[in-house]
Each structure stands twice: as structure tokens, then as C-alpha cells.
Design a protein that fits this description.
The strands form 7 sheets. This protein has a 17-stranded parallel sheet, with helices on one face. A 5-stranded parallel sheet has the order 4-5-6-3-7, with helices on both faces. A 3-stranded antiparallel sheet has the order 8-10-9. Helices cover 34% and strands 15% of the residues. The chain is an alpha/beta fold. The chain has 23 helices and 34 strands. Helix 1 packs across helix 2 and helix 16 (402-410) packs across helix 18. Helix 9 (271-274) links the parallel strand 5 (258-263) and strand 6.
Length: 910
């Protein structure tokens, strides 16, 4: 027995050693599938979290924000683990296939144990990433765009500009030079030259930061500091100029090498007061000053002054020919065209302006132009020679109509470098009585826009970065002011100035148009005596002084009065302006608004952003009114827009009204005709036969089902919101209709009203909200929505949008959004009707969010119909298992954006 024990003991011990790992491997095999399933589920959740965070990041990018580094790193780690997990899961699938295909159908315990351990390890990483995916913020405001990305000046490499640029670059490279002056006649191209210098300096990394700002004739120190600071990513909140200068200087000293370009300087600027360190205080800071005068370079202590010379004869001819056309080489025009180009004096702005003015003109007009250029005289203008004036004056003389000339001159009544609103020009010109031969205001507005386009084409006006606005080159403006100030036109322009006293005039009878736009006037006279004054433009900025009560008494001939920005109480003497046609009071306090009823000849009344305690019933006497803008700001004593209402029988009296803008200022309207009413009925609005533009908010959704005798047949432009709530909508020129039924649970009570049917034919943006009784849009309006470009449906009872037969009524549809519709199962449903392939070619964007029953987007419909889609979003649609087939995927050549949380594995379907 002892011998047997001796023999068995090693065997038992060896068995124990072998059984432990075998048991562990069997355990790994037992938990393997559970852990793999767990890993797959955790990965699905991580992908869902990533999708939500990526949506937030995409939205932040669209706002111009920079995504946080930690978020970007998190995205990178998620992408890496997703790729790794996919590989491991693929290995699992292959392992299962291998086992099932083998004869013994028994897994490799070692392989299974390894995969199990990896699954546990990866699952821990995935859970850790989920934990770290709870970002409170994903982005931050990034630095301002680099100057080489934003400047788009058209630099022409002529001999003179190449020479000047080479000198500037050499001076920038000279350590002994800290301030550089670049001077030349107005319109020579100094600004364009410095844009190219800035771009090259940044591109070649000569400087760490490059800042360029315009100073202009009237130096505004606070504005100058702000523009420099913003380009450096610095926000200046202080009001003290001294403190602002200290903060700006501190920021500039953080940069080792910085270039600051001060464009269009007219007099010495104390750089220390601005906050620009240089010289011994900051050796790496260089300043370039552009000016029309070499004297300014000397006043600024420039170490190097560079003269931008006019173009030589060859370069002048090349530039002139480019804008006048190749016809200047024809035998009949070549000689006179050469002489005309010579008269431009080598000044680029004049060559361009003159070339555009004479383009496609007959030879006789060229000869007349040459004679005019050689004989015209002008008043002396600082910084401009005689040839400059005569050339631009000639372009003015070539403006064909008197209306167009006045439109050009009215652009000079604004401050230098100002963005000029085309709508302001419309109000001024219409108020003066121009375009009387045109019947409607819309026709007159179109004429003004056509004139503006013509003036831009002639280089007399410039494009603005703001839609609906234009700008005027400062040289052209100087000429325009000289022309406008003559007795022929009678303008007095004191715009953008700081005036301690009201301007004095020797002969007040000669002044017919007076501009004080954006000027600081410290004191107004008690009474103005300008018997021939037709237009008084007093738009002000933040600096406001109350206007004396008798101020308007001596302005009997006044037709246009612009008081935008004056927040004081309206002087009672305004009732003396019985010839007034245009009145703009933006931001005013109208405590005595009843006096407006005295202005019987008024055609345009704009009280935008003014406060109104009581709606003045006297407005009903303004029977000549064409435009009424009452988009008011709420008075502090009212907490709701409902507190001020439109009295009955006021709107209906404005029979000539063409445009009415009420916005969200008045939301309570009677719907049914009642014998006794406390406020206006919508039928009054509908009764305005000439109304073409309407912006209104209506609280009572029952109005949508009411018929009117006159159903707004002439209404062509509108923003109408039928809702108990007010929504902030993005600015748009589209014809917009919003209908919010306030969670109404019933069906359509009856056919929609006559006015609604009329407008649905013209609507470009349609928003349907909280309408539980609406099952499809065909039910809403059977005749279709041909102009509709954007359809937004939120929290409605629809189960489908429409059938394929009805699709032909969406030929202009560009964007479709469906959100929070709990019953929606199919978006577009085939009814076996033949569908034209060109039916939805405009559709580029679709978005489906929070649709729990959605099973199909385009059921039974040829995918060719949707081949121009560029954006598809599918979020929280759990029953939508397939977005599109592989054949359809090949058609989506233009689709560049796909957002989905419904298909975590591929984003396209299973």
C-alpha cells in the first residue's frame, strides 16, 4: 500500500494541476457568448451617444465655434474602439463558422478563452468611454478668421502696384522702421494693395498676427479699438477709453510680431491713446498707415513713406479696356477711346468707372464724353484732383433718369463707409414723389432696386456684405456730396459728425434736403426755418437729445422725415407737417401718437421698435397710407402682446394700404362678425383690396376655417402665424404660413377658410404644428402646394404625408421636416399611379425625428424621384429598419450628409 501511495500521489497532484486550467477554459467557454453579446450591446449604446454628441458638434461648427480638444480626442478613441470591436466580433463570427463546419463541432477552448478575455477588456473600455461621453459643452468660440482667409481684394499686378508692394515688404523687413506710410490719391488702390500685403504677410508667416481696420475721415476711437481687439479675439467691455487702450496694448504685447494696418487715415492718430505699442515699447509691432496725403505720413512720424503712383499708359489702357470691352480696338473707336483713357489720369477707380459708363456706347457718345472730360470744372475737394472729379462727374451725367441721379445722390447722405439700406432709399425717393407714374409701391421698390443694380454695374456703388444693402466708395462719395450740395439739388450733408451746435445756413431757402444721419447733435434749435425743405434725415445712434416741441413748425414743405433711433417723446409740432409723405420713427416713445392722425397725406408710416401705450384710432384718418409698419417693442408696463389691441373699424378705413407689418405686436383679432366688438376683426384686413404684403400673428386658430368676402386675392408676400404661442422664426423673404392648433384632438371641423385656400396656393414655407386631427396633407388642401419649398410638420396626427398621386403638387419642395408625429407610419406611399421621375427633383433635404411608428419613408416609390437628396436625418425612429436599398444608394451621388441614430451599425439600414 505504501508503494501504491507513492505511485498515486504524483498522479493526483498532476491531475489537480491539469484540472484547474481545464476548468477555467470551460468557464471561459460557458461565459463567452454572454460577454460577446454584452460587448455588442455596449458598443451600440456608445455609437448612439457618439451620434448625439456629433450632432451637437456639427451644430456648433455651423455656428463657427471650435470643437473642444477633449471632444475630438473622445471621437478619435470611439472610432478606434469601434474598429477594434468590429474586428473582434468578426473573429467571433468566423470562429462560430469554423466550429460548425468542423466534424466534431467542438470549440477551441484556448481560442474561446482568449476571445472572452478580450471581450471583457473591450467592454470595460467601451463603458469607460460611455462614462466620459457626458459632455456639458462640446465647443467654444474660436479665434476670429485669419486675415488671409477673409480678405478678397482683387489685386492687379501692374508696374506701379508691384513697385509699391515691393517697397512695403522691404520696409516691413527693416528692423529700423516701425511705422510705414502709404499715400496716394483717392481711388488709386491703396486699400486693395494693403489687403494683398496683409494676405502675403500672413501666408508667409512674417507676422504672428495681422490686423487691418478702416479709420475714415471721422475718427471714432472706441470703434477703432473694438475692431482691432475683435480681430485679436479680445473683447473690450470697458467704457473708459484709457482702460480700453491699456487692455489692448497688453494683448498686443503678447504677440512677438504683429502687423497693424490703419486704412484711410486723414489726420494724426495718437497710437498710445488707441492702445498700439510700438518702438521701444514693442519692437515686434509694425504699423502701416494709408492716407491720401503725404503730410499725414509726416504727422504720423512714418520712418518710410511710399507713394502709390498712378498707372502708366500701358497699364491704364489694359484696365480701361477690360471694363470698356474689346470694342475699343475697333477702327472707329480706338483713337477716341485712347484719349478718353488718358483723361482718367491713370487712376484705377476712374478707369473702371469710365469704362463701365461708356461700354457699348456709340462713337458719338464717346466723342461727347471726351469733350466733357476736357472741359468740366468742379469745386476743390481735399485729396482729389480735377481729373478724378471730372471723370466721376461724367459717369453721373451719363445716368439716364432723374430718379436714378437722385438715388445716387441720396447714397451720399449716409456716413463714410456706411452700409446703405435699399429700403431706406425706397422710402426717401417715394416720399419725395418720384415714380409717380408707377401705380403700386412694389413696382416703385422694384424700380429702385433696378436703379441700384445699374449704379453698381457702373461702379458708382459697391456691393455690401449685408443682403439688401450697398456701399459707396469714399472718393465717389466726395464727388456725390459736391454735386448734391450744388444749388441744382440743394442737399446739406452733415452725416456722421460730432456737432456741438446745430449747423448754420446762410440761405435756408436753398436747402431742400438735410442729412444729420448718425451725427451727435448736442442741442437742437427751438424751431427750424427751412421753407423749401423736403427731406429731413435725423437717424441717430446711441447719442440722443430731445427735440424741442416747436422744432417742426417752420417746415411746411417737408415730405420725408426720418427719426430712426430717437427714443424721446414725439414733439407736438409734427402735426404741422401736413405735406409729409414718409415718416419713420424707430425706437420712439409715442405717448401722444394721436397727433399722427393730422398727417392726412402720409403714405409711409413706420413705427418699428417704438413703444405704444394705446393704439391711436386717429390713424383711420390716414386714408392715403400705403405702408404701415407697427412691429412695436413692448412697453415696460405691459407683460404681454395682448395688452394693446387694434380698435375696430380702423384698419378697414385704410383703403389704399398695400403693405402692413404687425408682426407679434397685435395678436388678438375677432374671428366671427359681431355687432359689438372690442377689437378689430380679421375681415377688416381681408377687405383691403390693394394689400400685397402682410405680416401678422393671430392667436385664435378658428380663423383658419373662416371664409371672408374678400379673401386676400392680391396678397403676394406674407408671414402669417396662427398660434396661441409666439415663435422666433429665422429671417426669411419667403412667403411663410404657420398653423398651430394647440394640441387639438379633433378632426378638421370643416373646410379651411377661403383666405387660407388662397394663400396655400402661394405659400413657400408651411409649418403645421399640434394638429392631431390632420391625417395627411392631402386632407388639408386638395389642390396642392406647387410653390412650396419647405414643409415642416410637428406633433400632428398624420399617418402618411401624401400618396404618390399627390406628389406632383410638390414640384418645388426642397426641404421636408417631420418631428414628433406619433402616428406617422409612411412618409410617401405609392398608390400604383405612374410617377414622373422629375417630380421631386428639387428635394435636397429630409429630416425625420421622434417617429415611433415610422416603418417606411418611400414605400413603393421609384428612388429616382429622390436622386438629388443632399441631407438625410433619421433620429429616434426605432421601427424604421431600412433607409434605402443598395440600388438607391448608388443614386445618391450628391448626398453629402447623413445623420442617423436609428441605424447604429451602418447609418443606412439593416
Amino acid at each position: 500500500m505504501e508503494i501504491l501511495g507513492i505511485l498515486l500521489t504524483p498522479v493526483v497532484e498532476i491531475s489537480k494541476c491539469l484540472l484547474v486550467p481545464i476548468r477555467q477554459q470551460i468557464g471561459c467557454c460557458f461565459h463567452y457568448h454572454k460577454n460577446v453579446r454584452g460587448l455588442r450591446a455596449e458598443m451600440v449604446e456608445l455609437v448612439r451617444i457618439r451620434g448625439a454628441i456629433r450632432n451637437r458638434a456639427d451644430e456648433a461648427r455651423r455656428k463657427g465655434e471650435t470643437i473642444d480638444f477633449t471632444v475630438e480626442e473622445w471621437f478619435k478613441k470611439v472610432d478606434e474602439i469601434e474598429s477594434d470591436v468590429k474586428k473582434k466580433l468578426d473573429d467571433h463570427v468566423e470562429d462560430d463558422k469554423r466550429i460548425c463546419s468542423s466534424s466534431g463541432c467542438f470549440p477551441d477552448l484556448g481560442s474561446r478563452c482568449r476571445l472572452n478575455e478580450e471581450a471583457i477588456e473591450k467592454m470595460a473600455v467601451v463603458r469607460e468611454l460611455q462614462k466620459h461621453g457626458t459632455f456639458s459643452s462640446v465647443s467654444h468660440l474660436g479665434p476670429p478668421p485669419s486675415i488671409d482667409q477673409t480678405l478678397t481684394g482683387c489685386f492687379e499686378p501692374f508696374e506701379s502696384t508691384k513697385s509699391a508692394m515691393a517697397q512695403v515688404m522691404a520696409a516691413l523687413d527693416n528692423n529700423e522702421v516701425d511705422i510705414i506710410g502709404v499715400f496716394g490719391i483717392g481711388g488709386i488702390g491703396k486699400t486693395t494693395l494693403m489687403m494683398e500685403v496683409a494676405k502675403q504677410a500672413k501666408r508667409e508667416q512674417i507676422f504672428d498676427e495681422v490686423v487691418m481696420t478702416t479709420v475714415s475721415h471721422n475718427l471714432h476711437m472706441e470703434k477703432l479699438q473694438t475692431e482691432i481687439a475683435e480681430q485679436l479675439g479680445l473683447k473690450l467691455d470697458e467704457t473708459s477709453l484709457f482702460v480700453r487702450a491699456l487692455r489692448l496694448a497688453t494683448r498686443l504685447k503678447l504677440e512677438k510680431k504683429v502687423l497693424i494696418i490703419l486704412d484711410d487715415v486723414w489726420e494724426r492718430i495718437e497710437l498710445v491713446q488707441v492702445g498700439i505699442p510700438h518702438g521701444a515699447e514693442h519692437c515686434g509691432c509694425k504699423i502701416v498707415v494709408t492716407t491720401r496725403s503725404e503730410d499725414v505720413c509726416n504727422e504720423m512720424d512714418c520712418k518710410s513713406s511710399i507713394n502709390v503712383k498712378v498707372l502708366n499708359a500701358d497699364d491704364s489702357w489694359k484696365l480701361f479696356k477690360r471694363f470698356a470691352g474689346n470694342i475699343v480696338d475697333s477702327p472707329t473707336l480706338h483713337t477716341v477711346a485712347k484719349k478718353v483713357a488718358q483723361e482718367a489720369g491713370g487712376l484705377p477707380i476712374v478707369l473702371v468707372t469710365l469704362g463701365r459708363a461708356l461700354r457699348n456706347k456709340e462713337p458719338l457718345r464717346w466723342s461727347e464724353a471726351l469733350k466733357a472730360l476736357r472741359t468740366s470744372k468742379h469745386e476743390e475737394i481735399k485729396g482729389m484732383n480735377e481729373k478724378v472729379f471730372s471723370c466721376i462727374k461724367l459717369s453721373f451725367d451719363y445716368i439716364q433718369s432723374e430718379e436714378a441721379k437722385f438715388c445716387f445722390l441720396y447714397c451720399s447722405v449716409f456716413p463714410e463707409d456706411y452700409d446703405i439700406s435699399a429700403e431706406n432709399l425706397v422710402m426717401y425717393l417715394v416720399g419725395e414723389g418720384f415714380f409717380a407714374n408707377l401705380e403700386t409701391l412694389d413696382e416703385r421698390r422694384n424700380r429702385v432696386h433696378a436703379i441700384i443694380d445699374s449704379l453698381k454695374a457702373s461702379c458708382l456703388l459697391l456691393c455690401s456684405e449685408i443682403e439688401g444693402y450697398v456701399k459707396m466708395h469714399d472718393v465717389v462719395r466726395d464727388v456725390a456730396i459736391a454735386i448734391a450740395s450744388s444749388d441744382s439739388y440743394g442737399f446739406m450733408i452733415k452725416a456722421g459728425l460730432e456737432l456741438r451746435y446745430f449747423p448754420q445756413v446762410e440761405n435756408s431757402k436753398s436747402v431742400r434736403r438735410f442729412s444729420l444721419i448718425k451725427s451727435k447733435v448736442y442741442k437742437y434749435p427751438d424751431r427750424m426755418e427751412f421753407p423749401e425743405l423736403r427731406a429731413l434725415l435725423m437717424q441717430c445712434g446711441q447719442f440722443v437729445v430731445n427735440i424741442p416741441n416747436d422744432f417742426f413748425t417752420g417746415l411746411k414743405a417737408l415730405k420725408v422725415l426720418d427719426l430712426k433711433g430717437h427714443s424721446g417723446i414725439l414733439p407736438t409740432s409734427i402735426k404741422c407737417l401736413t405735406n409729409l409723405r414718409t415718416l419713420c420713427i424707430h425706437g420712439g416713445s409715442l405717448k401722444q401718437a394721436s397727433i399722427l392722425g393730422e398727417l392726412a397725406n402720409l403714405e409711409i408710416l413706420s413705427l418699428k421698435q417704438s413703444s405704444l401705450d394705446v393704439f391711436p384710432v386717429e390713424i383711420r384718418r390716414l386714408t392715403n397710407l400705403r405702408v404701415l409698419d407697427l412691429r412695436l417693442r413692448r412697453s415696460h408696463q405691459y407683460s404681454s402682446y395682448d395688452d394693446v389691441t387694434v380698435p375696430p373699424n380702423v384698419i378697414s378705413g385704410l383703403r389704399k394700404l398695400e403693405e402692413m407689418y404687425l408682426g407679434k405686436s397685435f395678436t388678438r383679432w375677432e374671428v366671427e362678425e359681431l355687432s359689438r366688438r372690442s377689437f378689430a376683426n380679421l375681415a377688416e384686413v381681408a377687405s383691403l383690396d390693394h394689400l400685397t404684403t402682410l405680416e401678422i400673428h393671430i392667436r385664435d386658430y378658428n380663423c383658419f376655417f373662416v371664409d371672408f368676402i374678400s379673401p386676400l386675392q392680391n396678397l403676394m408676400n406674407f408671414k402669417i402665424e396662427v398660434s396661441a404661442n409666439t415663435y422666433d422664426s429665422e429671417p426669411s423673404k419667403a412667403r411663410r404660413l404657420v398653423v398651430d392648433m394647440r394640441d387639438d384632438s379633433g378632426g378638421l371641423p370643416k373646410r379651411i377658410g377661403s383666405w387660407a385656400r388662397v394663400l396655400l396656393k402661394r405659400t413657400e414655407q408651411l409649418h403645421l404644428k399640434n394638429w392631431k386631427g390632420l391625417q395627411n396633407v392631402e386632407q388639408l388642401y386638395e389642390e396642392g402646394f406647387n410653390p412650396l419649398a419647405w414643409l415642416h410638420i410637428f406633433n400632428c396626427g398624420i399617418n402618411i404625408i401624401c400618396s404618390s398621386t399627390f406628389l406632383r403638387n410638390f414640384v418645388c419642395l426642397e426641404k421636408l421636416t417631420i418631428k414628433s408625429c406619433s402616428e406617422c407610419e409612411v412618409v410617401f406611399l405609392s398608390d400604383n399611379h405612374n410617377i414622373e421621375k422629375s417630380m421631386l427633383l428639387c428635394l435636397t433635404s429630409v429630416s425625420f425625428r421622434d417617429l415611433p411608428k415610422l416603418i417606411s419613408i418611400w414605400k413603393g416609390i421609384d428612388p429616382y424621384v429622390f436622386q438629388n437628396l443632399e441631407y438625410i436625418a433619421v433620429v429616434k425612429c426605432p421601427k424604421l429598419l431600412k433607409l434605402f436599398t443598395p440600388m438607391y444608394a448608388k443614386l445618391l451621388k450628391r448626398c453629402f450628409k447623413l445623420t442617423s441614430s436609428s441605424f447604429p451599425n451602418s447609418g443606412m439600414g439593416r
